[in-house]
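Please review this one.

:::
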Amino acid sequence: MQIVRRMGIVAACTFGVLFAASAVQAQNTKLLPRDTEMTITINIQQILQSDVLKGEKAALILNLAKGKINEGLEDKGVAKWLKKADFDFFKDLSSVTFAVPGERNPEEGFILIEGKFDAEKMETAVMEASKEKDGGADFKVIKIGGVKAFEISPKGEKTVYIGVINKTTIIATSTKADFTDAVARSTGTKSGEFKSAAFKSLISTVNKKQSFSMVATSNAVTKLSEKAPEGAINPQAKQAMEVLKQLDGFSTAITIAKDIDFQLGVAAKDADTASKYALLGNAALLAAKAKVMDLAKQNEKLAPAVDVVNTIRLTSQGSNLMLRGQISFELLEKMLQNLPIPN
């Protein structure tokens, strides 16, 4: 989809501005545009520091992956700019959040990058890198809302604005207005709630301890689907879209630690409705668990599914209906081994 490509370009510019010489608790939602109706967050440090990556085999694989990435950065001439900016990709980058608006063109995305940044060193690296660029993008240093920003105009694409807000935050926006408002909210001179009540409620169901999270209103997802090329959405996805249209929105999250925790949230009409659905849902879960246990007695390969189903719970959280569960890595491995292998 066009929005995915646009957000990818913004992300590439955000990380890639240092690489121009060669050719990426509650959540920190304060800086996001108030008309945001969809977010995707990847918590890189949470994943890297998870218990599962502390094992001998996992650590070996991780080190090999880091080595390959560093090798690629060296080959493309990227590593020298990261070093000049005093930025360690694996230690200093904490999380990345992509945000999409609901009331305007979804291509006007916003990216929030959290970590540890030295603004002066990054500016020096960026300025030096820009002098060696191959002409693929116009580059300017400007001020927006009193904060120094890099205005980048990739060839054939819309301009993006990137700036280091403070030692822990970088933003990349598609408009000067979003950049200005984010600066104002960071200094406390501007505030305000999210315009979408559903998004405001659902964003409270995800947090910084999760490895991956996504929050979206049905309005935002519908708009994104309308931007998809003809034939890009299969019949099953279209059916899912029709179901989603009946809801106000949803959230989902995965937490990788010693085990894998997963959750799915759905926005209900109000707190009472969510509570009633939780009671009804748990009754249905009991019946489902009994059915899975019966099937496991007939087919021992389904035994791992029983353990997973037994962890699933439905609860209400404000006006949201929450489904939560857990699966261990050992159990996941068993389930994958039992999957039929296509010819």
